[in-house]
Write a structure and sequence with these properties.
With 81 residues, the protein is an alpha+beta fold. The chain contains three helices and two strands; from the N terminus they run ααββα. It has one domain. Strands 1-2 form a two-stranded antiparallel ribbon.
Length: 81
């Protein structure tokens, strides 16, 4: 039997960012719920209190190591988007 990966959920980047930075499950779920309520972009990674907006993967510099780390995490856990 082949292990089938689950499809990548909406706001998966929030999960990846916060897993890699050591956040608790409840915090990640709460942030994903907030993102859905506020209709954040699908590639949102966290809410900036200072700027009062959602930060996105697109906001990270192309060479930022978290881009690669998040993609690796998501590709290991979920099916390709």
């Amino acid at each position: 039997m082949t292990d089938q990966k689950k499809p990548r959920p909406r706001y998966a980047y929030i999960e990846a960012w916060h897993r890699l930075t050591g956040s608790y499950d409840y915090y990640i779920r709460d942030l994903q719920d907030r993102a859905a309520t506020e209709r954040a972009p699908d590639d949102a990674i966290y809410y900036s209190i200072d700027d009062k907006c959602w930060r996105r993967v697109a906001d990270l510099a192309p060479e930022h190591d978290m881009r690669t780390r998040m993609e690796t995490y998501l590709n290991d856990k979920y099916a390709a988007p």
